[in-house]
Amino acid sequence: MKLYEYQGKRIFAEYGIEVPAGEVATSPEEAGRIASRLGEVVLKAQVLTGGRGKAGGVRFASSPEEAERVAAELFAMELGGERVTELLVEQRLKIRREIYAGVTIDRALGKPVVMVSGEGGVDIEEVAERSPEKIFSRHVDPFVGFYPYMARELASRLSLEREAFIGVAEVLLKLYRIFTEKDAQLVEVNPLAVTDGGVVAADAKVIVDEDALFRQDFGQRSRGMPYVRLEGSIGCVVNGAGLAMATMDTLKHLGGEPANFLDIGGGAGEEVMREALLKVASHPGVRVIFVNILGGITRCDEIARGILAASRSVDVPLVVRFRGTNEEEGVRLLREAGIEVERDMIEAARMAVEMSRRQRDEHSCR
């Protein structure tokens, strides 16, 4: 589960990593008020997709009036299929140098790896491909831990002045603590800014293991629904990872292409279903959404209410298949609203594939 930047920075601050002064805005007027307190600011769209800077999702403003105008433009944007509903408005930093710092899992070795690079501020993947010798790393035995001398050893590879060297080493130690204590899969700062006042986390990227959410509380709006975006045209909303994989396989077998993997989980109710539909519908390539629900602890009538709540905002055809708990009531609710429901999974999948083809053909004829 990815956290928003502002959530990651709140965690950083809890662990003593310095972050820029800033607040979250949900309207242009609020962004202007925040800017009036902070002075020159940077406004960052809070989305869970990458590449927002290149897409225009990070902007600067030198006055409250400009901040309000820029915020209005950002709120009108859609980045990676996700509408911008929140902005992080922060005091603009005077950066002397940008560094990359991160902790993740090396899955080949099954160990955490701490990384630094003097090439901060750009995609670390680009650095790894272009200049891999500029990335310095150290694997950590989780039974031993990450010690200060290890952090200093990595920081020494960056040719920093004394104060910055000490600051970067301290940040690396704190990032590793966050990584282990928050059950993270990735904790990343890019860039870690060297300023006249010290070392500051100008960005924050935190991805948490969803299997550990029962002991973590991040206030995440997406409720930890596993979602993987693909390149097809049939959006999938399914309960249960196994059924989700079977649904995707069935669509492929019938000649269709799934646009995503999404598991709303067992016991999902109306609000989770509504969020899931809105998420899938935001994918620009989706021509039809296939809702495939096998009711156990998940109640089909609750899912139906979620579909109806989202249908006012979703302008994409739906194919719905229900089987299980409160199936009859769920079918009744949807049919009264003019939405047909299938009981057979293969037949419903075939309908979704055919509907996707019709939508494609109609679009190509325009």
Comma- or semicolon-separated keywords:
366 residues, alpha+beta, Rossmann fold, four-stranded antiparallel beta sheet, 11 helices, 18 strands
Description:
The chain is of the alpha+beta class. The protein folds into three domains: 21-91, ATP-grasp fold, A domain (Dna Ligase, domain 1); 95-215, D-amino Acid Aminotransferase, Chain A, domain 1; 227-365, Succinyl-CoA synthetase domains (Rossmann fold), CATH 3.40.50.261. It has helices spanning 5-14, 28-38, 64-75, 124-130, 148-155, 162-181, 241-253, 270-281, 300-311, 327-336, 345-365, and strands spanning 22-25, 41-45, 58-61, 78-79, 82-83, 87-91, 95-106, 111-117, 135-139, 184-195, 198-201, 205-208, 227-229, 234-238, 260-262, 288-295, 318-324, 341-342. Strands 7, 8, 9, 10, 11 and 12 form a six-stranded antiparallel beta sheet that branches. Strands 1-6-2-3 form a four-stranded antiparallel beta sheet, with helices on one face. The longest helix is centred in the C-terminal third of the chain and has 21 residues, at 345-365.
